[in-house]
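Consider a protein example.
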Amino acid sequence: MAERATTAEGLVAQLIELLDVETIDTDLYRGARQPGGVGRVFGGQVIAQALQAAQRSVDDDKVAHSLHAYFMRPGSEDHPIIYRVVRDFDGRSFANRRVIAMQRGTPILNMIASFQTPEDGLSHQEAMPDVPPPEALRSETELRQEIEARVPEKMRRFFLRARPIEVRPTAPEHWFSSAPGEPVQHNWFRVAAPLPDDPALHRAMLAYASDMTLLGTCMLPHGLTWLDGSVQTASLDHALWLHEPLRADEWLLYTTDSPWSGHARGHNRGRIYTRDGRLVASAAQEGLIRRRG
């Protein structure tokens, strides 16, 4: 396996390659392993690769507008992921694809994606929150480096490693604070280097990034953090609605909130805006938040 890149351009090139699923046979694809990956596969990677597999099976005149996925088992970075696409429906306006992600013959994720031929219609949207622009904020990478000494050594390498998605939080996360907070977050993000002009790739990149920062929102009212080892977390499902065309290499605002948690589960919602205030995507996720011990 190739070593993980260290520059923004190299990391983005590796991410593009990671999401470029390999065709094995008709409606059968292989997703590569992440360079330098250790342990559990990032859920956003599985969703993005599954979306790419589904997009490869649909005519170019139809565009992905929603996906609904369930995580059944954690994926392992030790093996590639196989994606089987089932063509459940092809209509004049809409198409539907079912994707089963497997490792070593065992399903790890089921996903349904819907596609539509673009058309005009009635329109409205919720306004973008009033937050500082990304240029006025510090990067999450810089904020993480400042607290390096406080991070447990076994987590330090993962916590500090360079990432292909640049994130700038409007309110820096209190990774070591046990004080309860409002279950709302606002984070600017973008792919850290320019991407090719491929709309399908930009949708897949957004799907990848949509699994970031979302689950942590439901832990804010409880003063919990994954860094102190006091809570077990995992994504249980993930839904994404793609409303408008977008570029994932331009700044996007991800505003998330959590209206409920209980029974060791937390519900999270997200809205993704462009800088000029267009609502381009919405997300929802329920995750496991279980106290240890």
